[in-house]
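Minutes, methods subgroup
Present: GH (chair), OT, SY

1. OT presented the first of two proteins processed in the latest run. Sequence and structure tokens recorded below as shown on screen.
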Amino acid sequence: MTEVTQERILCPVCGGPVKVDQQDKVNRCEYCASPVLGPSQSRNCVNHPDVLAKEVCHVCGDLVCEDCMQKRVGEYGGKLLTIVNCEKASCIAESEWAKPLNEEYQKLANMDWADRIDNIILRVTGLGAIIMMVFELIFFLGVMFYHFLTPWSIPQVSIEFLGPEIMNPITILVLSIFGNLLAAILLQSALQVFVHERQLGAGITLLVILIIEVAYLIIRGLFFGLLTFPNPYFLPILIAAFLFGTILVFFGSLMAIYVGNKKRVQLKETREKLNLSIRDEIESLK
């Protein structure tokens, strides 16, 4: 018995192999979900056999011309995604999660110019936030180790309403948890700088949380008496790691604020231009 080998073609988008399940209809790439035409499929519109198709309906896979398609824009992963559906009621219903595309608005509000700088900002702020989280963990473990497992100990601080012996594992743990919480907020905000609409707010949040984190670290350092620590390496290494993470987050947040504000101005000007053009059209009809 001879084995039937299924035909495969390469996806034009990602280059992955696509199993040809349908010779005369659209096949989907299992790697990137892009539509791939069947080898014997007609390249003309399904509704107008004499017109070359321009797009593929993302729901049913039919090829459609400009007169038979509807373009929509939806958000996916923080970025705007353009999809196409044909005029069948079922396909329109499946696409209602996305908003109808205003092509003039889309053209004026296009932010492809920011893709490269957005990637740089995400990597800079993300790396800085990760370094801050790792620093907080090392800071906690280091203080616990040197206070309870070495001859050196943190000087006791007497606070009247807390008692004379407040330098204990619980105190160190509570103070460290708050530091790790600040670092986690930094990381969460760093992930938001990749979203156009949230970039400006995320940059401001990063800057504010960073200032709080730096101030909180100075307070903890003085509280734990790290300046009196006799080991010549522990404190300089901590300071170097913290400064490196701080510098990355600081410059990343400034870039996010600058680029985010530039996008805000672009969207504002786009809306003003569209409103002006609509008013001009109305006036011309009077």
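2. SY then presented the second protein from the same run.
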Amino acid sequence: MFWDDIVLVTEQVEKHGLRQPFVDLGGMIRPCIADYSLTRDSGEQGDRFTYLGQRPFDHIDPEYEIFNPDKGSLLIEDLPYSNREAFGTALCLNVLEHVENPFRVFAALYQIMKPDSLLVVSTVFCFPHHPSPNDFWRFTPECLQYLAQNAGFTVLEGGWRLDVPAEWGILDLQTQRLQQIKSVYVTLTKADFVRCPCGPFTLPQRLHRDGVLC
């Protein structure tokens, strides 16, 4: 997970408002969180890996739910069978590159979201191969917006997001080659939408593996 994803979701909820219930589709309880600026500043490759003393979005809503097929939840494609128009705020972060059929996933996302809901999707445009269990796709902002609109969503905003140039010196730890990292995002709704700013929320503290604060 990228630290920038946590910042992105926090910004979007503050700007557009939190709707209930709030779910993270494909998220984890205690992910490793990469902040490449830490390695850029220190020159140490391991410094980019951080952890939280909480779930990634407890600072927004400590009651939010995580749906992850690795933990027994349904695949996104199967959620409409039991969760039609069920969710007010949903996240789909760094999941799309791993699905077989992104058109089917967006169709399912549309079915499970309530009217006047908020959906934040982020994925990678440039990132090393990382099967989990598969790694199929890379996306541009135009592609994300097309997929969303094709499914029936209204695009609130979107575009390029995380931008880590190779000049920062970030190495792929498997190949030891310099890597560039770019992500894209789109924030979506369906039917009529009323913007309801909320917050501000305080971002969670990050820890290195040794427990030292970043």
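Chair's summary of item 2: The helical segments are 3-16, 36-42, 102-112, 141-151.
Next meeting: continue with the remaining queue.
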